[in-house]
Amino acid sequence: MCLSSAQCRAARALLAWSQDDLSSASKVAKATIANFEAGKRSPYERTLQDMKHALEGAGVVFIPENGGGAGVRLARRADASIDTNETETVQYEEYLENDAPPGAGG
């Protein structure tokens, strides 16, 4: 199975999505999602893939079973990277006094 009911619930929670939101994004009936998440039925594999693709498209990353258990997390957004522009690096005066001269290594 490509998606568990627990992963589906967790993924929706990360996105703050309702079952209606997932239904709209995946084109899967809300009743199918509700029954799946409640453990009442297991949808067709294609239906599970549609739900998974919709969640992935919204930024969810599915973590496979790797000894620690399957899970979900949000993908790192491209605009959330750390700025590494060294021309704007600030050093405080007290650190400059004891700083090694250029080329001294370390």
UniProtKB/TrEMBL annotation:
<dbReference type="Pfam" id="PF01381">
    <property type="entry name" value="HTH_3"/>
</dbReference>
<protein>
    <submittedName>
        <fullName>Helix-turn-helix transcriptional regulator</fullName>
    </submittedName>
</protein>
<feature type="region of interest" description="Disordered">
    <location>
        <begin position="86"/>
        <end position="106"/>
    </location>
</feature>
<dbReference type="InterPro" id="IPR001387">
    <property type="entry name" value="Cro/C1-type_HTH"/>
</dbReference>
<feature type="domain" description="HTH cro/C1-type">
    <location>
        <begin position="9"/>
        <end position="62"/>
    </location>
</feature>
<dbReference type="InterPro" id="IPR010982">
    <property type="entry name" value="Lambda_DNA-bd_dom_sf"/>
</dbReference>
